[in-house]
Amino acid sequence: MLMEYVRVSKQARDQLINLKRKTRIENWNVLCRWAFCLSLADSSPPREQKLVTDSSIEMSWRTFGGENEEIYEALLRQRCMESGLALTDQNLTQQFRLHLHRGISLLAGEKDLNSLEKLVRKALVAGEQKR
Question: Could you please report the per-residue DSSP string of 67-79?
């Protein structure tokens, strides 16, 4: 298990609330998975920042990852290795938080993201750009 709990900042919470309303995705963990993967698809490193994860949104790592929690952890480890970062618990946790928050911001910044269909299209476009 990568970390015990996943927490987000107040700003990310507000963005997730908006995304839930727009996409009609009911669960925080599902939106967070999309956000995390969207950030990983961006080849640039996430901006270093001190994140204050003090919002009311909290979930266990197992809830975040669901039946694919090992895959999400493996994706994060691979990204850290590609970035030349040591695979320490501290680095992995920090990079996860940075990618999660960047992904939430990327999703929230999409003005025309108002349905699940458009979210899927965005993911497909991001995947194509990575190739």
Answer: GGHHHHHHHHHHH
For residue range 107-116, what is the model confidence (pLDDT) as tens digits?
998 877 777 7
Host H or E run for residue 6: strand 5-7
Contact 60, 11 (CB under 8 A): no
Query: What superfamily in CATH does domain 5-130 come from?
Result: DNA sulphur modification protein DndE (1.10.1220.160)
Query: Which pair of tokens denotes residue 41?
Result: 């698809």
Q: Residue ranges of the domains in the chain?
A: 5-130
Q: How many CA atoms lie within 13 A of 1 on its CB side?
A: 11
pLDDT in tens, 94-104: 999 999 999 99
d(C-alpha 54, C-alpha 31), whole Å: 18
